[in-house]
Amino acid sequence: MKDVLDELAAARRTVGTATLPAGDAYTMELRRRYDAPVDEVWNAITDPERLGRWLKSVTGDLQLGGSFELDGGEHGEILRCEPPRLLRVSWLFGPDADEWPGTSEVEVRLSPGPAGDTELALVHAAAVGEPMFPTYGPGAGGVGWDLHLLTLARFLADGETLDHEEFQTSPTGREFVRRCAAAWGEAHLAAGGDPDHVAAAVQATTAFYAPEGNA
Predict the structure, then answer these.
(1) What pTM was estimated for this model as a whole?
(2) What InterPro entries is this protein classified in (predicted)?
């Protein structure tokens, strides 16, 4: 368990605000370093075959101004692409998502480190009115991104991937989820979240990603 929880501690989590085309938004930001050069990390987040190894399989017109779709249903447009430093996409999910454009965006920024490593900053901005926040808070998307960035770390290190469903039902995975949800709760509190809402959101997020009875 120590190696996985070390990965948890490697990330810094921040909750903030932004403005999207649809209006005011909250942001979930994850920052962490990878022991790989910036070009290698860029390739892992943009090459369709490699992206499918740690995120999900992707199809579409994968160029600036084009559209993409993941096999989980997430889809959107490629809004900015500045190799090897910045990628921004709109991020929609659900059968009615296309009726509400401009409500969710994901931006990834890469910065080369002094030792040949790379700092990755992932910022997911979601409109304040989106339905998940009142129940789950920033952990709704934050824990999911934590799981994917854990998989990216393993993929960059040795080419291995992580079965999220299997991992989340293991004792180590359940502890990882519990601590992730708590860490997003701390970030939410630091951003001025109401303590009662934060506590309820952490509990709901933990139950969603690691429900009782699935151990």
Answers:
(1) 0.93
(2) ASHA1/2-like_C, START-like_dom_sf
